[in-house]
């Protein structure tokens, strides 16, 4: 690709090609693409792309860009990765783009303040684990991995200025987060305007046919369409996926909200967290995370509506998710562990800790073992009846634990075998 935006020459718009008929296979591929999606823009264009791909045998180029802003992924991140895998299974070329250049700008999407740019060291550290974790969902042998510094660095100052000339400030201010911040008098740094331009330029560089992203990325994805027109490329279509709600069923899944399921968490923890979601939210997880067909999910839902136990359906999605990121055996073991815990049993894989200072106040003990973040949280858990020693509920906040070995439990999922000296 010509990396200098200034070398583009205008050309007349070619005559529209006749519409291709949509075969059953194309219709099925379109349905798979739309499953769980928030929006597909523009659906008729994407249908024609699929039809041309079927006719020519040339796979579509499907792009997903992720800025390595954190080292670990959770199930919320895998919503778009699942969609990529589904399209990959249809025979299309998926491109996993690490935004190592754009990370240094900082994505302003959904932000009410300037996002601090990451250092090159932070970016490289986070990027090391991104693809490894994404490969738990994608087929790595059929995934093209790219870094956008490959073409963004080559732009240089002149190219960056020329690229910036492609968009007006008025159009940038159409972004909801920018307009809100401007109206509220919240500072907007000039470099933040570069982010959607650089993300859009990625689509030009990769000759993207379809770009995926969360609903908060829609503006940036549309910029890619416009820039591709400037480079006389057929504009990409856009598939936005909803933001998955976390364990609370309200807020989007986020580590900062502590309502997440990490894809590298232990199998038993992952299973128990999925089992904690509501019976209603369970179907949302089926829609966005399961690889079962829509017909299978519909049959399962019908069986529950006709009197089946929702727990059985929840066990099925929990096992599917655990098997994907661990193994089928781990999923079976996680179910056995969950059943054991539900009967008041102690899991097999609890931490073994040695603490000194006996006799030690219970709140301080809970803090030192890491089962509670603070003594105030420990007091709260004791008040709520959420603390057990060797299976017995402890309600005395003044209790001092004597020397010995015992199992300490907080809530339903936190255990430690403690040796207190």
Automatic annotation (TrEMBL):
Residues of the RNA-binding S4 domain? 360-421
Q: Does the keyword Ligase apply?
A: yes
State the span of motif ('KMSKS' region): 252-256
The GO annotation for biological process reads: tyrosyl-tRNA aminoacylation
Q: Which GO terms describe its cellular component?
A: cytosol
A GO MF annotation of the entry reads:
RNA binding
Indicate the transmembrane segments per the record.
Answer: none
- Keyword terms of this UniProt record: Aminoacyl-tRNA synthetase, ATP-binding, Cytoplasm, Ligase, Nucleotide-binding, Protein biosynthesis, RNA-binding
Catalysis performed (reactions):
tRNA(Tyr) + L-tyrosine + ATP = L-tyrosyl-tRNA(Tyr) + AMP + diphosphate + H(+)
The cross-references to Pfam families, in alphabetical order and at most eight, read:
S4, tRNA-synt_1b
- Indicate the family of this protein: Belongs to the class-I aminoacyl-tRNA synthetase family. TyrS type 2 subfamily.
PANTHER family the UniProt entry points to: TYROSINE--TRNA LIGASE (PTHR11766:SF1), TYROSYL-TRNA SYNTHETASE (PTHR11766)
Name by which UniProt lists this protein: Tyrosine--tRNA ligase
Biological source species: Pseudoduganella buxea
